[in-house]
Write a structure and sequence with these properties.
674 residues; mainly alpha; two-stranded antiparallel sheet; 22 helices; 64% helix; elongated
């Protein structure tokens, strides 16, 4: 029968019975739940329209608590599944505890109704405290459900809700209780990470994400492996808002401890203690900072003192930056003939033996890390290595570009290099030093070495050519004038190569190295070590003019002109030797020093023959034309290089320009031609 047909007391009792059922999620006879529009919506209720108006108003005030209970109970049932993560499970457990207290109140009200001591007005009075609690839980449940929150994102919502009730003490205490309970599994992950450097995140909800496919062994193989940056990364979605300011320190703290653990050492923060969520963030922020300081100091001690990072860097400087000249001289004296062969004809084992011999017979023998040095033949030239291996940014694309150019593998099928062009050094680096001296850093050192090594080779060629042509001083005055242009060009080439080497070693590498040593003595974290070392290499490559395609091509062309010119002059020397030997045999006199009274005259005769041959060669138009061609090509390329250097307008490059054009000769040539 409709409620309106019943007396008012019976209507009240019937409505109270239905409300108590609805407060536990069960439909009543006169008040029924309406279908949901979507999963997170608040449930509506249909009340018998014949109900007394005064009772209907009170029922309308009480029904929202039934809707809140429906939302919260559905949220708990859904988010308690494993797929939603441990933070949501902990949140549901805390909500379930509050619902138990609420259901206890409902049970007490039901007892009062059965003994006829519960009126609708009393029911409204007793449920008001519970209504506020369920309203807060409903707000939280709807927010988490609609945002698809899990992990740190759920904690961000809880923190925002807790902070919003600053003026409502009871509501804030309730939110604080729920947030602390939900934070427990997350803070357990956090403690394990900052105290031991371990990630145990089966649900993928922690702020630190581990990439297991990136392993430290790749540091020895791949030049561009970014183990330090990519092995452990920050997942922005799972950073709680109350930990945003220390997220970077959290990441670095665990990474430092993880490196120590990878060395086979057990490490744990000695002042480890549990972290508990509070509205005042300073409490756990201070603890994270203490853990960060401890981890940083432990790793720095391991790297700088136990592993002797600075000693390894000094050793690399000795070999790759040509800091010990006697080693290079010994090696080039013994291996130059071998290195002149095509790269494919050189035996790596023989080259390794020659390098070992040079190490043992030079000052490098006292280096404790000399056994880490290895010889290497690179199957592509320096320019190819710069363009492809190091992926130099093309024109118009900076290092911060959104899409950097892809790194392409060098094509070595059509490359025919000599040993001098392909020779390089390698250095064996073990964990954890491979974090700092990574394969990528070693490639940068190799580029500097190959550039310096080839410059030294060109200088030796020019000096050897200068020495072998001393016979020209025995020529006639007319031959001197013909030969002067060749000697002048040789001197300009030697001036260019020597000043280029001096600039790179004494004005670039040495000052930057001193700065690196000074910085490494004052660093506080391993990230500072990495940044300082990379900055040293990048500045060295830039100021040694190895990061500009155009400048590097010009220097390579100039070196090629110098080598080709020395080869041409060596051919002239060989022609003289052959001619002098032939003339001496025709005259019946040996050209070597003999024994007897006529011996002192033989060198004079040989010199006379070579002088006559030299006059004949240098007086020819072909020799004069060849020297003029070399002079033209060298001057053109050098002027173009100077113009490029002028445009850079840096202090170090300005010094290089002043050395190459110390008397304004090339500037005058430009003005004359223009």
């Amino acid at each position: 029968a409709p409620l309106g047909s019943l007396p008012l007391p019976m209507q009240e009792q019937a409505v109270i019975e239905d409300l108590l059922y609805l407060m536990m999620g069960v439909d009543g006879r006169h008040i029924r739940a309406e279908p949901l529009s979507h999963g997170s919506s608040t449930r509506g209720f249909a009340v018998d329209k014949t109900l007394d108006v005064s009772l209907s108003i009170l029922v309308g005030r009480i029904l929202p608590i039934c809707g809140h209970y429906s939302v919260v109970s559905r949220f708990i049932e859904e988010k308690s599944k494993f797929v939603h993560g441990s933070v949501n499970q902990a949140l549901c457990a805390a909500m379930r505890g509050l619902l138990k207290e609420y259901l206890l109140v409902v049970a007490q009200l039901e007892h009062q109704a059965r003994i006829s001591q519960l009126s609708l007005q009393k029911l409204w009075y007793y449920v008001q405290p519970c209504m506020r609690t369920l309203e807060i839980l409903t707000r939280l449940a709807v927010s988490v459900t609609r945002g698809g929150c899990r992990g740190g994102k759920t904690l961000t919502n809880l923190h925002a809700l807790t902070s919003s009730f600053v003026g409502d003490e009871r509501a804030q205490e309730l939110c604080l209780h729920i947030t602390q309970a939900a934070c427990c599994p997350y803070f357990s992950l956090l403690e394990r990470w900052i105290h031991r450097g371990e990630v145990a995140d089966p649900y993928g909800e922690f702020m630190v994400e581990e990439h297991e496919d990136i392993v430290k062994d790749r540091l020895h193989k791949e030049y561009n492996d970014t183990y330090w940056e990519r092995r452990y990364t920050i997942c922005q979605e799972h950073i709680p808002s109350f930990l945003e300011q220390v997220a970077d320190k959290v990441l670095r703290t665990g990474k430092y401890l993880n490196v120590i653990r990878e060395c086979g050492r057990e490490v744990e923060f000695p002042e480890a203690k549990g972290i508990r969520y509070t509205v005042q963030e300073r409490q756990y922020v201070e603890h994270i900072e203490e853990a960060h300081g401890y981890a940083s100091q432990r790793l720095l001690t391991l790297m700088l003192e136990e592993q002797d990072l600075l000693g390894h860097l000094r050793s690399i400087k000795h070999y790759f930056l040509l800091d010990q000249g006697d080693l290079l001289v010994h090696f080039m004296d013994t291996a130059e003939d071998e290195l002149r062969k095509p790269m494919m004809d050189i035996l790596p084992s023989r080259l390794e033996s020659l390098l070992e011999l040079a190490l043992r017979t030079s000052l490098a023998d006292s280096d404790p890390y000399k056994d880490n040095l290895k010889s290497l033949l690179v199957p592509y030239d320096l320019i190819t290595q710069l363009f492809y291996i190091m992926a130099i940014q093309p024109e118009g694309v900076g290092p911060d570009a959104a899409t950097p150019p892809p790194v392409q593998k060098p094509d070595t099928t059509e490359v025919n290099l000599s040993g001098l062009e392909a020779f390089s050094l390698d250095y064996t680096v073990r964990w954890p030093l491979s974090l700092v001296i990574s394969r990528k850093c070693l490639f940068k050192y190799q580029m500097l070495f190959r550039h310096l090594f080839y410059c030294k080779h060109v200088e030796r060629q020019l000096c050897a050519t200068w020495s072998s042509h001393k016979v020209a001083k025995r020529c006639s005055l007319q031959a001197h004038s013909w030969y002067a242009s060749a000697f002048a060009l040789l001197q300009r080439m030697l001036n260019f190569v020597q000043n280029l080497q001096y600039y790179m070693t004494f004005e670039v590498l040495e000052p930057y190295w001193r700065g690196l040593e000074h910085s490494l003595r004052s660093v506080t974290t391993i990230d500072d070590v990495l940044a300082t070392h990379n900055d040293f290499l990048d500045k060295s490559l830039r100021d040694c003019m190895l990061s500009s395609r155009e400048i590097l091509k010009l220097i390579s062309r100039l070196m090629a002109v110098c080598v080709t010119f020395t080869n041409h002059m060596q051919k002239v020397t060989q022609q003289l030797e052959v001619r002098s030997l032939t003339e001496g045999r025709r005259g019946g006199l040996p050209l070597t020093r003999g024994r007897g009274k006529g011996a002192p005259l033989q060198p004079r005769l040989a010199a006379k023959v070579m002088s006559a041959g030299l006059e004949q060669i240098v007086s020819s138009e072909s020799f004069e034309h060849t020297v003029a061609t070399f002079d033209k090509n060298f001057t053109r390329d050098l002027i173009e290089l100077l113009e490029k250097l002028y445009s850079l307008s840096t202090d170090t490059v300005g010094s290089m320009v002043a050395r190459l054009d110390f008397n304004g000769y090339y500037q005058d040539r430009v003005r004359t031609e223009s």
